[in-house]
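Request: When convenient, would you put together a sequence paired with its structure tokens?
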Amino acid sequence: MKSDAFDSKTGGQQRSPKSKLRARCPSCNAWVPLRDNVEVWDLVDCPECNTQLEVVDLRPPTLEHAGAGLEEEEEWDEEDWEE
């Protein structure tokens, strides 16, 4: 039997030999194991570089740095607080 990353039963999600869901770390490109019941926006840590990552998609499983999509907080001047 051929062991491709595509599995028609899982809709193409990548699974390791132990049948665990996984995705690549955007920092070090290592495989990060994911729980079978993982959901979008869950936080995980890369086992290689210890970077905190966020699940941003499940098809295919995709990780980004935690908080990468958030806009930086605007700095408030003292004048803004006095209004």
About this structure: The two ends are 69 Å apart (CA to CA). Strands lie at 21-24, 31-34, 43-45, 52-58, 61-65. The longest strand covers residues 52-58. The chain has a mean pLDDT of 77.
